[in-house]
Design brief:
Layout lengths: L1 H35 L2 H37 L1 H87 L6 H26 L7 E4 H11 L1 H6 L3 E5 L5 E4 L1 H18 L8 E8 L5 E7 L28 H11 L3 E5 L7 E7 L10
Parallel strand pairs: 2-4
Antiparallel strand pairs: 1-3, 4-5, 5-7, 6-7
Helix pairs in contact: 2-3, 3-4, 5-7, 7-8
């Protein structure tokens, strides 16, 4: 009989040991899983443990209060109500301080933060809509100006041709009218290109190759005008972008530089250089001319559509250039060298950027 009892106790102890081992392994697994989770999950688990501990302490305190109240009620019945009242107030106050107060504080903070965010979003949306409205008004005025003037001139010439169909000047009038209509067509074509959202074909590029490809387009003009081209190119400067769109950017910048030096008495000098920053996360290029430069009053207007200081210019070249560069996650800015002329500095990411979007 004694052997059976000892055997039963041994079996029970082994089972208890296995259960404790199993529970210990489970707890380690839970701790290991929570350790591999993110910080927010750990915070939630800590808050849940705090609430559970507070709830357990509340139940324990209430049981203790009931026992004390029972003892007091046996010896002094009237004092029992005071004990209950004071004990309940202390226990409830402690529970509110440890559990309810942090939750209410978090809710109030979240409510205030959300209110401030809603206010900031509404203010930003209002500002953005205002800027877009002013931009659309400016764009509409530019479109009206660029289209109305050539059409008015062509209409006047056609009317003169109608007054005397056999006049010798009609051929010249017709030629000028066609030139004015071609100007309208050119403006509309540039406007559609500026407004259109095009696909983005990003790939690794050597910046020096893009620059040379754009310079090849102006080979004949550079030779005929005697332009001295100064190149300082970093052959290892690479970028990530659309080759055709970035080539278009370079063509616009080089064309502007050549046009700015077209009426200068001295020999025109075009400087183009490129490189990378110290962190090697951005590449830069600079196109500089030795022309008259940009007037201070026009520095902000040169990026606006239909603004042009050149005779016959559409005013969309720099606006389209800026749009393409920003779509690549880059920036462009105007520099005023102390020796005169103008320089455009472009920075582009060397790797795919989250800011990249269709241009």
């Amino acid at each position: 009989m004694s052997g059976r009892v000892h055997a039963s106790r041994g079996i029970g102890m082994r089972r208890s040991a296995r259960r404790r081992k199993h529970r210990g392994g489970s707890e380690k697994a839970v701790r290991g899983g929570s350790g591999s989770g993110d910080d927010s999950r750990q915070d939630r688990l800590a808050a849940a443990r705090q609430r559970a501990s507070a709830s357990a302490k509340l139940v324990k305190d209430l049981i203790g209060l009931l026992l004390v109240t029972l003892v007091v009620a046996i010896f002094a019945g009237r004092a029992a109500m005071w004990v209950i009242t004071i004990g309940v107030c202390v226990i409830v106050g402690d529970y509110v301080k440890k559990v309810l107060e942090p939750q209410l504080r978090e809710r109030w903070i979240e409510r205030e933060v959300q209110r401030e965010l809603d206010h900031e979003v509404a203010a930003h949306r209002h500002q953005t809509l205002g800027e877009q409205s002013r931009h659309i008004e400016h764009l509409a005025a530019g479109v009206a100006h660029e289209i109305r003037n050539p059409i008015t001139a062509a209409k006047s010439l056609v009317q003169q041709m109608g007054e005397d169909p056999r006049a010798a000047e009609n051929v010249e009038y017709a030629h000028v009218a066609l030139e004015e209509l071609e100007r309208v067509e050119k403006s509309i074509s540039h406007l559609l290109r500026f407004a259109r959202e095009e696909g983005f074909q990003g790939q690794p590029l050597v910046l020096a190759d893009v620059i040379r490809s754009a310079l090849d387009t102006f080979h004949e003009r550079i030779d005929s005008e005697g332009v001295l081209v100064q190149l300082r190119l970093d052959e290892e400067a690479t970028i990530y972008g659309d080759p055709e769109k970035l080539r278009r950017v370079m063509i616009n910048l080089i064309a502007n530089a050549l046009d700015a030096m077209n009426e200068r008495d001295r020999r025109p000098v075009l400087s183009v250089e490129c490189g990378t920053n110290l962190a090697n996360d951005e590449a830069w290029l600079r196109v500089r001319d030795h022309g008259p430069g940009v007037e201070p009053a026009e520095r902000d207007d040169i990026w606006s559509p239909f603004f042009s200081s050149k005779k016959g210019g559409t005013g969309l070249g720099l606006a389209l250039t800026k749009k393409i560069i920003e779509a690549h996650g880059g920036q462009i800015e105007l520099e005023s060298p102390p020796t005169g002329g103008a320089a455009f500095l472009v920075s582009l990411p060397t790797r795919p950027s989250s800011r990249m979007e269709p241009a």
